[in-house]
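hey m, so remember when u said the tokens were messed up on ur end? i reran from scratch. heres the input so u can diff it against urs
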Amino acid sequence: MPHQNTVLHDLLKHIPWARFEAIIKAHCTDAGRSLTTRTHFLAMLYGQLCGAGGLRETVESLASHQASLYHLGMMAVPRSTLAEANRYRPYGVFSEMLAALMAQAHRGLRHKVAESIRRIDSTSVSLSNLSARWAQFSVGVCGAKVHVVHDPDADCPVYAGVTASNVNDITAAHAMQITAGATYVFDLGYYDYGWWAQLHEAGCRIVTRFKTNTPLTVTEVRPVPAAGPILSDRIGTLPIRLAINRKNAFSAPVREIRVRIETGKVLRILTNDIQSSAQEIADLYKRRWAIELFFRWIKQNLKIQKFFGTTENAVRIQVAVALMAFLLLRLAQAAQTVIESPLTFARLVRANLLHRRPINRLNQPPPKPPRNADQLEIQWGAA
């Protein structure tokens, strides 16, 4: 019978190991440690993919599959050792590993389209009071934010960062690298004229919403269809000054498109794109909800709401590993054509993680093992 790798082994084939090893070497995170960064990463990845509820469940499950770990290049890990690694191993090595995998996944998953679309948003995750030292939001409430730049055409993130919940979204946005010429779609959390000016100067298209109290000095009114969701299409300029001594850094002409959505609510959409149709701009903003579906999928299927540690370092490591798990599932699913549903594929991978089965046949019954020749002879002789 031909040898068959485990499902987890096949997932790991999508990791750029040479790049990972170079990152680990550059950070010197293995010096003087009994637990290597590779084993640390694989143990955390296993916990995310199998849906473990904590470190104890992760290490006990790994110990029960001791015979399969050798072929993965790892070993069983004591709980205390894994907890210490989450607490003290610099999360920067995992952040760079995530960036390398995002770059590879983006190249492999993105469809050939004329422009790059970037959707920016954040999601909050609750933490226990043990994280109050770095993540306290209010009295008795602790949490963190995961900031993501998402490419809807590849359905994968191209940037991710973690901050405490009390950090404003626009503060995190200033740390994001701008992709020149891309279309950036975001909501009111990123309402900053100075940042918009940086995007505009980089040749980016901006699609967001007006605040209700933001005036527009109208210079042109464009016609719109008499019947339809588009109510008005106007071009103008934003306020010249934000305060007596503060000049608005974003002085380029902008466009206000008022659109009525399915619920009956009217949105004021803002864009610096003067040429495209009003419907195209409205559709771009509507597709912003794809990132909300991405957040929901991550939380529900990779258990990102259950953290294995309380320190900032441990939380950042787990978020990075959870996003890498998502990317590996996307890459593995794209490499086969049998299972179309991402949710079904993720569930089948979880159920067969350390089973020796082809990853493109997870929805089929496992093959029956061949009978031993001696047993067949005994059965025939008895007959």
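this time it looks ok to me. The chain has a mean pLDDT of 88. if urs says something different then somethings off w ur setup not the seq
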